[in-house]
Amino acid sequence: MSNPRARPISPHLQIYRPQLTSVLSIMHRLTGLLLSGASVVLSLWLVSLALGEPTYSLFAGLWDSWAATALMAAVVFCVYFHLLNGVRHLAWDRGFGFDLPTVYASGWTVVVVALALSALTLSLLA
């Protein structure tokens, strides 16, 4: 019992043009996932610290690489982006900033400020 009428289908990803709002929404979710993984690594670091110097030195040896430095830079960016975008969502929950120009302005502000704060933090740590 199929319906012979042609039904409209949703646009496929190949023809859909991503918008800033959808990209930032996906980034917010991805940064949340990365921060969850980073909290597990932080917990493992604390456990290695509690288990004594041999275990800690093994764990600390993993952090002497360019990949670990890049991962830490990504985590710093994720903290700032997730925090700032969360504040933006809290403003939306209160009913502020729903007109399209404000949505785009606040979105770009979140990205630029997160990048700037990340650069500042990493320059202070170096």
What does this protein look like?
The chain has helices at about 20-50, 55-60, 65-95, 100-125. With about 130 residues, it is mainly alpha-helical. α1 (about 20-50) runs antiparallel to α2. The longest helix is centred in the N-terminal third of the chain and has 31 residues, at about 20-50. The model has no long low-confidence stretch (mean pLDDT about 90).
Give a quick set of tags describing it:
126 residues, mainly alpha, 3 helical TM bundles of succinate and fumarate reductases, 4 helices, 0% strand
Topology:
Elements: H1 20-50, H2 53-61, H3 66-93, H4 100-125
Q: Percent range for helical residues?
A: over 70%
- Corresponding CATH architecture: Up-down Bundle
Proportion of residues in extended strands: under 5%
Annotated CATH homologous superfamily: Fumarate reductase/succinate dehydrogenase, transmembrane subunit
Q: Given this structure, which CATH class is correct?
A: Mainly Alpha
The averaged pLDDT comes out at 90
**Strand count, sense and closure of the main sheet?**
none
Annotation field: number of helices: 4
Strand count: 0
Nutshell version of this structure?
It is built from four helices and no strands.
